[in-house]
């Protein structure tokens, strides 16, 4: 099951990456292109072209010019095209001597071959009784030949309603990634929905915005928010970084020039501490004159558990009298369980095992506050001699401060100072204090 889910996530990422790459390439290919919008042609009930200038109905004549101007204004507002129409290019188009029955294809071919446009947009108006049927075509020159690269059609119950069709016509006329008419953002996806980061690790989030039809929205702006910035930071580009062990939720919204996403995407980020470490060092004071500065070897174990959802007691039923429900915060055992559960969940509890070869063994449990730059810990433990188990046994109060160099995502090289206050169990011995310096390595999951 886990392997199948992993394959599905990888497949989704590949599809989204392909869509994004295709979107960027196609979007860039349209920037700055010259587009000429010709007046629309008119057809009668028999499908024959009508000379709109000599036609008795003024509505059809005006609609021919209004539709082309409406499309031109939308393209100008889009801001990615160099737009010309039959008014700005009037002299050039008049010199082409188009007859009223010259087809849209032939007109586009002449304009494209003249080299005054990279794209030509024209259309036709057909009256079916009182209904106006509007068709729009987009032509380009490819490999020396005129090709129809976009087409759309719509209808209006009355001629006067036809100009309102401009937005719908342009939406279908261009590829989905060229949003001449900006589409509203319906969904935002963050892949994957759960991320595990090692402490200090950074990762780029993959987010996508789709419209109501599941099409990618071109060039949206994403806004990123972290529910707990002390644990996980996120910048304006969607790069997250694990700052402290724990869990934070990243919320992603998408906005465009006029719209924003309705439902944001959320992503759970878990920051993990190092789970295993090795230390080697020495104390700064001699324990005995003949011993010199003792060498200390150590292990660091940081267990972590997945946080479980808390169970909420059901409300009392009407059939039984209401009794005072036990409040979890008033239960000492619940408090202790919650405290240690939180430390284990967030990787705050570290087990230290330090020993001098054939001399001494020290075991301590430390609460460690970690960040991407260093760590600080306090703990309690017990120390005993290995060569004489009855000699110099005692309790230990330990203070640790350290920093680390991040070598890889799974390896760091720490340098730490450790101060131990030892309180012997024998009344004849006095408390002792010692400071040690350790070097080592920490491994992340």
What does it look like?
The protein is an alpha+beta fold. The chain folds into 3 domains: 31-173, TolB, N-terminal domain (Rossmann fold, 3-Layer(aba) Sandwich); 187-272, Immunoglobulin-like; 276-304 and 338-443, Beta Barrel (Porin). The protein has helices at 2-30, 58-78, 90-94, 104-113, 166-173, 332-345, and strands at 33-37, 41-43, 49-50, 81-85, 119-128, 131-142, 145-156, 187-191, 194-198, 202-204, 206-210, 221-226, 232-234, 239-242, 246-255, 265-272, 276-283, 295-301, 349-356, 360-370, 374-385, 394-408, 411-424, 432-443. The strands form 5 sheets. It has an 8-stranded antiparallel β-barrel with strand order 17-18-19-20-21-22-23-24. Strands 1, 2, 3, 4, 5, 6 and 7 form a 7-stranded mixed beta sheet that branches. Strand 2 and strand 3 form a beta hairpin. The two termini are 22 Å apart. The relative contact order is 0.08. Residues 21-28 and 308-329 have low confidence and may be disordered.
């Amino acid at each position: 099951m886990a392997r199948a889910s992993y394959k599905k996530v990888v497949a989704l990422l590949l599809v989204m990456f392909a869509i994004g790459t295709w979107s960027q390439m196609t979007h860039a290919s349209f920037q700055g292109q010259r587009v000429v919008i010709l007046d629309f042609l008119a057809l009668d009930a028999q499908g024959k072209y009508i000379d709109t200038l000599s036609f008795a109905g003024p509505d059809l004549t005006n609609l021919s010019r209004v539709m082309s101007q409406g499309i031109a204004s939308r393209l100008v507002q889009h801001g990615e095209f160099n737009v010309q129409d039959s008014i700005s290019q009037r002299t050039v188009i008049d010199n082409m001597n188009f007859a009223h029955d010259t087809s849209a294809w032939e007109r586009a071919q002449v304009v494209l071959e003249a080299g005054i446009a990279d794209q030509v947009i024209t259309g036709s108006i057909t009256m079916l009784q009182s209904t106006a049927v509007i068709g729009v075509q987009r032509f380009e020159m490819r490999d020396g030949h005129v090709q129809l690269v976009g087409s759309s059609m719509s209808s209006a119950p009355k001629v006067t309603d036809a100009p309102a069709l401009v937005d719908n016509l342009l939406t279908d006329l261009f590829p989905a990634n060229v949003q001449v008419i900006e589409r509203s953002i319906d969904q935002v996806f963050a892949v994957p929905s759960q991320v595990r980061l090692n402490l200090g690790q950074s990762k780029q989030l993959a987010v996508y915005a789709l419209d109501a039809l599941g099409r990618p929205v071109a060039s949206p702006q994403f806004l990123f928010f972290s529910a707990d910035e002390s644990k996980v930071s996120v910048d304006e580009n969607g790069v997250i970084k694990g700052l402290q062990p724990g869990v934070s939720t990243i919320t992603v919204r998408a906005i465009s020039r006029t719209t924003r996403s309705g439902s944001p995407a959320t992503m759970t980020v878990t920051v993990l501490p190092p789970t295993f470490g090795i230390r080697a060092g020495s104390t700064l004071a001699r324990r005995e004159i003949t011993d010199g500065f003792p060498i200390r070897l150590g292990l660091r174990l940081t267990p972590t558990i997945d946080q479980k959802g808390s169970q909420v007691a059901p409300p009392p039923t009407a059939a039984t009298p209401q009794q005072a429900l036990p409040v979890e915060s008033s239960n000492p055992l619940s408090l202790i369980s919650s405290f240690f559960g939180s430390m284990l969940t967030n990787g705050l509890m570290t087990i230290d095992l330090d020993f001098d070869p054939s001399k001494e063994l020290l075991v301590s449990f430390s609460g460690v506050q970690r960040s991407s730059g260093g760590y600080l810990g306090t703990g309690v433990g017990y120390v005993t001699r290995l060569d004489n188990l009855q000699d110099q046994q005692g309790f230990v109060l330990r203070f640790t401060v350290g920093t680390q160099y991040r070598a890889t995502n799974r390896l760091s090289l720490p340098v730490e100072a450790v101060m131990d206050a030892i309180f012997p169990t024998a009344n004849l011995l006095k408390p002792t204090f010692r400071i040690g310096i350790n070097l080592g390595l920490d491994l992340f999951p």
